[in-house]
Amino acid sequence: MGGLRILVASSEVAGLAKTGGLADVAASLPRALAGRGHQVAVVMPYYAAVRRTGTPVEKTGIALPVPLGGRTLACRLLRTRLPNSDVPVYLVEHPPFFERDDGPGRGLYQQGMPGGYKADYPDNAERFTFFSRAVLEAVPFLGFTPDVIHANDWQTGLVPVFLNEAYRTKPAYKHVRSLFTIHNIAYQGTFGPEVMKLTGLPGWLLNPGQLEFHGYLNFLKAGIVFADAVNTVSPTYAREITTPDFGCGLDGLLRGVSGKLSGIVNGCDYADWDPANDRHIAAKYTADTVTAGKAACKADLQKRFNLPQKPDVPVLGMVARLVSQKGVDLVLSAAPGFLDLGCQLVFLGDGDPEYHDELNDFKARHPDKVGVFLGFNEGLAHAVEAGSDLFLMPSRYEPCGLNQLYSLRYGTAPVVRATGGLADTVVNATEEHLKAGTATGFSFGEFSARALYETVKWALSLYRTRPADFAQVVRTAMAQDWGWDRSAAEYEALYRKVSRVG
Question: What CATH architecture applies to the domain 290-481?
């Protein structure tokens, strides 16, 4: 079978501009696809964040005319490459829309508000309508005609709509197909009906069967309806979002298009996340040297968080956005019980101010048992993964999750709620799975502090009284391969099905 030609459209790309897991996928998947022999390019906005990385950016001499709300705006198309690859990244330059992340509290999509909260930019609909249209205007200048345009999340939800309704009759676009990936269905890009005028699309498309959602224009729904195929970032999440509990109002639509909906687990970038060659941790280690390696990393972690360096005290680690989705409230409710079980706890993250306050108060009450770092620090995130004995990830929902994949590779048994990608990647340490040698972590179903506490209690029982069984869980976890080549092979098959190539 011949190679495919793929254009990945994303509002963020790791190594250039990032707020979350979408950026990791938009960087790692194209690299893996290129490694499999496919022709791949990426297109994203040219943010101030890209300039701050110091990445070399070259001018292409290409100016794109982008229709927007009855007028035509000009933008330049710049070019760079994905870090550590030859995959080209095309940057849509329009400073009024995309170079505002240049001051305190100003991000890619949001700005800081009084009280520590964040609010979306009021013109996000205009910004990402413009970007979606620019993606399609860029197609003739890529040096190849894509078999598939792979759009991601609501920020590119209009790409499949524009492709079908405004570009399909043009020769360069006749055979181009689209895949739309939902990374988190809770974020939908819902705007007032007046935004239809910005799109330039026919007003009759704003109907319940296509773009309209309870009187609003919904960018995520647009991508789902108009794309040739839809996927999300784990098989379990693909099933969950067709239910009222997880579908965020779109479950009926997704049940209706279930024939084109699938799930592919994200990969883990082992070039960055592997204790055998991790420059951020105190001691490199493999499955053969995990006992000594993790002991050194644990001592280093305790030192970093100003905790007593006690090798026999289990350390529970958590690295997460401090929001309700991540189950922070469960951890805070169960945390006094964890201390009673003789544990130390370390937290790294940033999010809602009330969680900041609660964590700081908890640390103040137990300074010799609790460590807190509010914000994000890449090196410290690696240290938590390497130095903890258990990693806490009790999410309300989790489309895929990456930290549990990191934890598996680092031999830090993840404690997860069995939802979304967590259910697909962690094998619970039941007696049956322990006997079969397949257990890789610990999981529970009910979203409650009691269920989390009992699961940690069971994990600590193995850790303390059945060390051989606990060591087997660690070794089995480290042997798992959730690398990007596996994910890329599944995406390749999906692209071929969508484009009918090969």
Answer: 3-Layer(aba) Sandwich (3.40)
- Output the six-digit token pair for 323: 């929001």
**pLDDT mean over 186-193:** 96
For residues 28 and 172, is the Cβ–Cβ distance under 8 A?
Answer: no
Given this model, what pLDDT does residue 322 score? 92
- Cα 171 to Cα 150: distance, rounded to the nearest angstrom: 19
Task: Scan for tokens 């009855």, then name that residue.
Answer: 70
pLDDT tens for 476-490 read: 999 999 999 999 999
* Token representation of residue 375: 């914000």
| CATH code for the part of the protein at 10-267+485-499 | 3.40.50.2000
> Rounded CA gap, 146 and 162, in Å?
15
Nearest Cα neighbor of 216 from 202, 203, 224, 206 is 206
* Domain boundary assignment for the chain: 10-267+485-499, 290-481
Give the CA diameter of the chain. 71
Quick one: CA dihedral 182, 40, 265, 324, positive or negative? Answer: negative
Q: Measure the N-to-C terminal CA separation of the chain; round to a whole number of Å.
A: 5
Q: Which two tokens stand for residue 6?
A: 């793929």
For position 501, what pLDDT does the model report?
A: 66
Q: Is 284 a known ligand-binding residue?
A: no
464/401 Cα distance (integer angstroms): 28
Q: What is the DSSP string of 37-76?
A: T-EEEEEEE--HHHHHTT---EEEEEEEEEEETTEEEEEE
248 Rama sector, left if φ>0, alpha if ψ -120 to 50, beta otherwise: left
Measured CA to CA in angstroms, residue 258 lies from 75, 238, 243 at distances of 38, 9, 12
Beta carbons within 10 angstroms of residue 205's beta carbon? 18
What pLDDT sits at residue 370? 98
User: What length is written for the chain?
Assistant: 502
CA distances from 387 to 146, 301, 482 (A): 44, 6, 21
pLDDT value at residue 19? 87
Q: Which residues pair with 26 in a beta bridge?
A: none
Side chain identity, residue 4:
L
Do the domains 10-267+485-499 and 290-481 sit in the same CATH topology, yes or no? yes
Amino acid at 317: G
